[in-house]
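TICKET: design request
STATUS: open
ATTACHED STRUCTURE:
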């Protein structure tokens, strides 16, 4: 399976202001110390090899949307955040307009930042498209229709031309969807969110966002260590630092980088992707969170296998 990230922010989309871009360019020029580059390729090597990711690039600002390549003749899409618009455009590029295609959506939950991209999803207006929306929420269709009511959006849900189905799945059961084994598990979040697990060809990928894991909740830890067990990749909600998650932002429905590492260590997972970035965090802040997480993993590892830590960004691709 190949996991492609189209949106990695939480709560609402963000975009850098002009001053932020100016500061980033000025900082890169200072780091270059007046050196000359033979061509653009040499300049790009400087950016990628000598600057941190946040110094030379950006983690992006689209809200939650991931794609999994590896199913039988269908797209697998996780959530419908603002990143879904670009995914839809790219799907047209890859497969051409007018060709029949199928999209399986798997919804963590129905908060606005996780569904706001659907009205801008081009394939939904194509009669050759078949969309199946899998959710643990019986009110999923209600949520998607409501955001396209005239008071909120000018294009009614009924104007969509794709064939659209809604399927409510039951936690604790295993389903096979187009060649991929799928499971879901409820998480602590307003109106409930669901973690998803995908298994194919001996590989396991877990997507767990918008979940609050508390240091003193041992039952929750045991349950999620079981759900994450031996996963090759876990994409996990790391919106806050540990200090934030237990003080000012306790009970806000999100978790910390420390809890994500603890759960992955307990589960014997192999790789953790930090996800659902705080919208007020800039690229430098996210760089710092990544470095802090890598240091914490090394200090807390003990005799466990190393856990690889990566930080998700819009455009990242990870092979599972």
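STATUS: resolved
RESOLUTION: sequence designed for all positions
ATTACHED SEQUENCE:
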């Amino acid at each position: 399976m190949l996991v492609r990230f189209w949106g990695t922010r939480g709560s609402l989309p963000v975009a850098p202001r002009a001053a932020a871009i100016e500061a980033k360019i000025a900082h890169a020029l200072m780091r270059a110390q007046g050196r000359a580059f033979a061509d653009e390729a040499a300049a790009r090597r400087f950016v990628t090899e000598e600057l941190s990711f946040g110094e030379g690039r950006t983690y992006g600002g689209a809200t939650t949307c991931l794609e999994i390549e590896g199913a039988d003749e269908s797209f697998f899409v996780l959530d419908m955040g603002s990143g879904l618009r670009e995914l839809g455009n790219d799907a047209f590029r890859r497969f051409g307009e007018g060709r029949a295609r199928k999209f399986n959506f798997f919804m963590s939950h129905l908060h606005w930042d996780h569904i706001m991209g659907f009205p801008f999803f081009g394939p939904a207006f194509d009669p050759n498209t078949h969309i199946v929306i899998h959710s643990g929420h019986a009110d999923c269709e209600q949520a998607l229709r409501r955001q396209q009511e005239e008071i909120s959006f000018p294009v009614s849900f009924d104007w969509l031309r794709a064939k659209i189905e809604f399927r409510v799945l039951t936690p604790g059961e295993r389903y096979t969807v187009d060649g991929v084994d799928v499971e879901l598990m409820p998480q602590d979040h307003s109106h409930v969110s669901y973690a998803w697990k995908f298994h194919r060809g001996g590989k396991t990928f877990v997507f767990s966002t918008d979940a609050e894991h508390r240091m003193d909740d041992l039952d929750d830890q045991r349950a999620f260590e079981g759900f994450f067990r031996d996963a090759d990749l876990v994409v996990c909600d790391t919106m806050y630092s540990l200090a934030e998650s237990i003080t000012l932002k306790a009970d806000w429905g999100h978790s910390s980088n420390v809890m994500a590492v603890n759960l992955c260590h307990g589960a014997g997972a192999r790789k953790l992707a930090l996800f659902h970035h705080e919208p007020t965090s800039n690229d430098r802040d996210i760089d710092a969170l990544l470095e802090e997480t890598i240091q914490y993993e090394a200090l807390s590892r003990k005799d466990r296998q190393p856990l690889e830590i990566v930080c998700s960004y819009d455009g990242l691709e990870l092979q599972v």
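CLOSING REMARK: The chain has a mean pLDDT of 94. The chain has one domain: 2-14+59-319.
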